[in-house]
Amino acid sequence: MLANKTIVLIISGGIAAYKSLDLIRRLRERRARVRAIMTRGAQQFITPLAVGALTADKVYTELFDREAEQDVGHIRLARACDLVLVAPATADLMAKMAHGIADDLATAVLLATDKPVLLAPAMNPKMWENPATRRNTEALRGDGKKFAGPKSGEMAERGESGVGRMAEPLEIADAATDLLLHRRPPTPDTAKPLAGRRIVITSGPTHEPIDPVRYIANRSSGKQGHAIAAAAAAAGARVTLVSGPVAQPDPAGVKVIHVETAKEMLQAVKNALPADVAIMAAAVADWGVASEGDQKIKKDGSGHPPALDLVENPDILATIGHNDTLRPMLLIGFAAETQNLIENARSKLARKRADWIVANDVSHEFGVMGGDRNTVRIVDAGTVEDWPSLNKVDVAKRLVDKIATFFSGTAVDMPEAEEQ
Ligand code: C5P
To answer: For the stretch 384-403, what's the b/e string if a residue is b when 16 or more beta carbons lie within 10 angstroms of its beta carbon?
Structure first.
C-alpha cells in the first residue's frame, strides 16, 4: 500500500516511545520505508539498536554527526521523504515546534521539512490541558500540522487517567496512510442536525461473573440504548455504543464496543471520550461479586448455600459527571423509579452531575425493561417535560431531536482527517 513511500519517524522522549516499535512494524507491513530519528529523551526509553533492527535502516540521533551529515545531511533527511511522523510527540517537542526552535536533529528536521507533518501527542493529561500546550497545539494546527490523537484512558502514572494517551499504532499508521494516499475521511453530511458531533452511549445490562459458568444479570434488553444510537447516527453524529451482552444487532453506522462487566463498561466509555454528548442508558449492575472464583462453585453437601460477597460497582455516569476532563458538554442519564419519580430524578441529577435525566415510572407500566414501549419524563435542573407513551424507537428520535435543538447555534468542530 505504501510501497515507494518514505516516512521519517521522529521518536521523542516519552514512555509511549515503546509503542513506536510496533508503529514501525505496522508501517513496514504496508511496505513504507521508515527512517527513524530519536531524540536524546527517546533513547532513555528505547534503544537505537531496537529501532534500527525494526526499520532495517540507519537510526539518526545527532545533529552534528559528521558521518550522518556526509551520508544524507539533516536537510536532505527532512526533504527526501513523503511524510514526517512524530510519535510520540511530547509537550516539549510540540512547544519547540510551535516556536520554531531547532536545537537538535529532530527539531531541525521539523523546521527544515517541506513535507506533511503528522503528530501523535502523548503526555500526562495535566500537560495536555495546560494552557501553554493548548496554545501550542492551536498554533501547530494553524501551521497545517496534522494530529492523530491523543486519546483518553489510563496513563502510565498509576491511577491517573484523562486525555493524553498516545493513539494506538494501528490508528497512527491509518492516519499516516490516509495522508500519504491523500485519502479524505468521509465528510460529515453538514445538512444533518448532529453532523460532526461525537456521542457515546451505553446500553443493555452488565453481567457480573460469579464463577466460570454463572453470573448476575438483569432484564435490560438494550432496545432503548441501541435505538438512541441508531437515531443519533441517522442524524449525522459519530456514535460509539458501549453495549453489555444483548441480543440486539449492532446498529448500522455505529462503532460498537461489546463489554460484559460494569468495570469493562467504564473503561470502554473512558476510552471513547472525549465527546460532545454521553447518554448512559445501560442498566449497570450496582454490585459485582467480590472475588470471581476460577472454579465452578459446587454443592458441598452441607445443605448450606454458599455466601456471595458483593462489592459496589463503579457508577459510570457519576464517574464521568465528576471528571472535569472527560465530562462532555451534555451528559444524560436514565432513571427507572417506582416512586417519587421527579424527586429521585432531581437528586440523581445533582449526585451524578448529569444535565438531563430520562426518567420512567416502572411501577405502573409493566415490562418497560425488555418491552417495546416507554413513557418518560425529561428532567433537568429547572424543568420537567412529560412525553406520551411511545415506541422506544420514537423515544430515541425525540431525544435526538432535543439534543440537536440543544446544540443548534453552537459551532461544530468538524473532525479532521487524522482523527478518523
Ligand atoms: O442510580 P441509578 O442506577 O438509578 O442510576 C441510573 C443511571 O445511572 C443510568 O443512567 C445508568 O446508566 C447510570 N449508572 C451507571 N453506573 C452504575 C449505575 C447506574 O452509569 N453503576
So the answer is: eeebeebebbbbbbbbbebb
